[in-house]
Amino acid sequence: MQHVDGNALAGPLAEFFSFDLTTAIARCSGCGAVGELARTMVYRSGAGTVVRCSECDQVLATLVETADRAWIGLSGISAIEVPRG
Amino acid sequence: MSFITRGFSGCSRERDERLPPGQTLVQDFPVLSAGPTPEVDTAEWEFTIRTESSVHRWNWDEFTSLAIDDVDTDIHCVTHWSKLGTSWRGVSLDTLFEQVETEQEYVMAHSYGGYTTNVPLDELLDGKAWVAFEFDGEPLEPEHGGPARLLVPHLYFWKSAKWVRGLVMMEQDEPGFWEQNGYHLHGDPWTEERYW
Ligand SMILES: [Zn+2]
């Protein structure tokens, strides 16, 4: 099967990065719990923000911000569901 | 030159040469945690060093019976604060590694609570790192990483893992928790190795 380069993601991924993430539903890759991101546990530290599963405490996501750059890690989320339409 | 300027002005606006670039002095000790504070009873506490061939273990009594160093050092947080002249007591990594044979050159530090951070072994030896259990003459409080934390003061302070429970030797350098999420693999404050 042929592949195309990542520019092809622009359309499909725009949807994922343009909605209110707190309304999204995520699946924890540790325990399998499926729930709204708004119901996770969020820890803020100077180094960054850590989002943990409220069922099993696993790290779902990390956010690191500087004045000119930002990172999001989604190491503990196996899938995200967003509402459409 | 600097001391003449100081003599004239009576106070100095010059940069303290102990302060790495981009850092500001603080007097207090900001608390930076990425999760709930683990409550680790010293009766349950254990420290391990895992190599390619064996695991070395110390419980709290064994650990605190080792040679203890008094460490006076400056610490530098990646979030731009530095604190000068902090005092710690702990066991030098040189002491711990006296009993350890390994060919592997990289270390992943693991903490109670799941946090990890990577440091090359040669940056932990020769008087450069400790497992510290006292700060300012008092047992290290849980919010500052007690019962014991790694202390690697020549690197940014996120490398000084709180609630440390063990070191795992690695053949190659691999990123720890924050290093996977934007922070620098090495973290030298003097060359501002803050992020990727
Ligand atoms: Zn979970």
From TrEMBL, chain A:
InterPro entries: DUF6510
Protein name stated in the entry: Uncharacterized protein
UniProtKB/TrEMBL annotation, chain B:
Organism superkingdom: Bacteria
Protein name: DMSO/TMAO reductase YedYZ, molybdopterin-dependent catalytic subunit
CDD domains xref list: arch_bact_SO_family_Moco
Boundaries of every Oxidoreductase molybdopterin-binding domain copy: 35-178
Region Disordered, residue ranges: 1-21
Lineage: Bacteria, Bacillati, Actinomycetota, Actinomycetes, Micrococcales
Source organism of the structure: Agromyces cerinus subsp. cerinus
